[in-house]
Amino acid sequence: MMKLSLLRAVMVASGMLFSLVAVTPASAEVQININKGNVQPLPIAITDFMSADGIGAQVSQVIAADLQRSGLFAPINKNAFIEKISNPDQQPRFEDWKVINAQALVTGRVTKEADGRLRAEFRLWDTFANQQMTGQQFFTQPENWRRVAHIIADAIYERVTGEKGYFDTRVVFVSESGPKTDRKRALSIMDQDGFNVRNLTNTKDLVLTPRFSPSRQEVTYMSFEGQQPRVYLLQLETGQREVVGNFPGMTFSPRFSPDGQKVIMSLQQEGNANIYTMDLRSRTTTRLTNTGAIDTAPSYAPDGQRIAFESDRGGRQQIYVMNADGSGQTRVSFGDGSYSTPVWSPRGDLIAFTKQSGGKFSIGVMKPDGSGERILTSGFHNEGPTWAPNGRVLMFFRQAAGAGGPQLYSIDLSGYNEQLVKTPTFASDPAWSPLLD
């Protein structure tokens, strides 16, 4: 199997496809301002990409599904299309697309090269400005066609919104199967849309809290292999696995530093838990908190200068922020109820959390100083938020009342676009990857 780190090199964009019409100033182009809160989705027409074997239509379907799930785009039913695109290199009849209120149009083709590779190319058109906005082409092996579709969706998202997309990513999670009395758990990974699921571990040993490295295709997680709780590092490209360290007592919530050089975690000793970091090169540990309470779930700010964590030192779980060396420990959550699982946004502007109050579990966000708290979704049991790499969408898991097991959901920062992420089994504790290399 091709290494992921090499995949982008194989699937390199060979340059922009030349626009067939004069480019007018950017102010005339269709745009989505995603900083306005609840945004009205942009009507967009995504035609079936031309191909000899139907793969083009499949690529188009994945692109449309990605954009629709974002909540920012509204793909138009193909039955409404007036013009049938027979040559994606030619300028479309813009009036035919304006009639059905398609403010943007995507055309393209997928062909097979002589060496067996797929060539996928697309053009994004602004139908009301009568111009092409962008066009690119990619080469890859046939089995990677879904990745090509996700990359094209990212390119469209970025061109229209001005911000990076998040579709060419993966999610590692805990897959759960079997009855409640004998639940089996394995570490699994999938594309962000729930496809291409595969197990990374077997169901023999309990696994918890998987987390992606921000800089490598590497995962850290906790396993009870041999009835001994340990933190492991797993290289996704090679399958190589190693123990971070053997610590006395329980180890919780391992997470990488932003540069990927350290793992921060909570170690339980003599009834309390404190936060430590381990340098992955020297394997030296540094203690950051020293209390008789339970300090756990640490998460770095993206610049590595501060750490959010949860602690019950005040009587119940609350969110605290400290400097990276452990100094300046300050409580930032003061609402009703208890707060847990803080996760710093990749943008640095927000901390996501789980809140338990009034018999409900909620997923919310607040600014790093605790101000501006907003609840995005509430239910019987919601927990474990993780950020998409662009800091615009969260994934979490939900256990509904009376349901057989947890399921994964995503929600954007508006709180209006909540989506079920279907998985073959019950699923919990998701962790979103960075954009793939």
What does this structure look like?
The protein has 437 residues and is mainly beta. 10% of the residues lie in helices and 41% in strands. The strands form seven sheets. The chain has a five-stranded mixed beta sheet, with helices on one face. A four-stranded antiparallel beta sheet has the order 8-7-6-29, with no helix packed on it. The chain starts with a helix and ends in a 5-residue tail after the last strand. The model is unreliable at 1-16 and 18-27 (pLDDT under 50).
Give me some keywords for this one.
437 residues, four-stranded antiparallel beta sheet, mainly beta, globular, five-stranded mixed beta sheet
Topology:
Elements: H1 4-10, E1 42-46, H2 55-69, E2 73-75, H3 94-99, E3 104-112, E4 118-126, E5 131-140, H4 145-161, E6 170-177, E7 184-191, E8 198-199, E9 207-212, E10 218-223, E11 230-235, E12 241-245, E13 250-256, E14 262-269, E15 272-279, E16 285-287, E17 295-300, E18 306-311, E19 318-323, E20 330-331, E21 338-344, E22 351-357, E23 360-366, E24 374-379, E25 382-387, E26 393-398, E27 407-412, E28 418-421, E29 426-432
Parallel strand pairs: 1-2, 1-3
Antiparallel strand pairs: 3-4, 4-5, 6-7, 6-29, 7-8, 9-10, 10-11, 11-12, 13-14, 14-15, 15-16, 17-18, 18-19, 19-20, 21-22, 22-23, 23-24, 25-26, 26-27, 27-28
